[in-house]
Amino acid sequence: MRGKIIHWAALLTVPLLFLFFVARYSVLHARQDLSPGVGGGLSVFSDLDTRINRSIRVSLLTEKGAIPVRIPSAFDSAATDITYLPDEEKLSTLASSLLQQTWVPTAYNTFVTSSTDTASQAADIAVQTLESPYRTLRAYEPDPGELALAVQGVRLELLTLQFDAATNNLIAEPLLVSTVTRDSDGN
Fold first, then answer.
1. How many domains is the chain partitioned into structurally?
2. Angle at CA of residue 114, ends 112 and 117, nearest 5°
């Protein structure tokens, strides 16, 4: 009987000592400048860079400045692919595709027969309703003529959330940025 006890004690001692030293090492070497929710302590939940924490910010570059817009639903699949697997080439291709679109005020269809002040009216309404002030022209809509926004370029930013330990805030930092502009002859 005594031999069995010594045998089991010897078998259990090595794994228990190993677990003790691993736990001791983790506690002594864990970063203490982070909260436990984002990597402090034993580094639980230390990586925020996941697909759910990434988004694409689209800005139309015009002579009046950058105008933030939503990604048109026709490009949702490409945008989702980029957020899952960030790729600079795919981001640039998406920016080029968005640059080729005709951008009109969100309320374009409502004001098609109105005055030339239509674009500013539609943009004001869109801002008041918290929508993107511009959208892409739909295939069945008439040519917008001078109501179309003169887009000189498109800037896409793939943003990821990062934890700022100094302020205890989440901040959006660019992971990838792509800017595509029209050349001098408008193409």
1. 2
2. 105
Residue 117, token pair as written in the block: 């002040």
Contact 73, 84 (CB under 8 A): no
pLDDT in tens, 169-180: 888 889 999 999
Encoded tokens for 114: 């109105």
81 and 172 share one domain:
yes
| Enclosing domain of residue 12 | 2-30
Contact 156, 130 (CB under 8 A): no
Q: What is the pTM of this model?
A: 0.63
Residues 126, 69 share a domain: yes
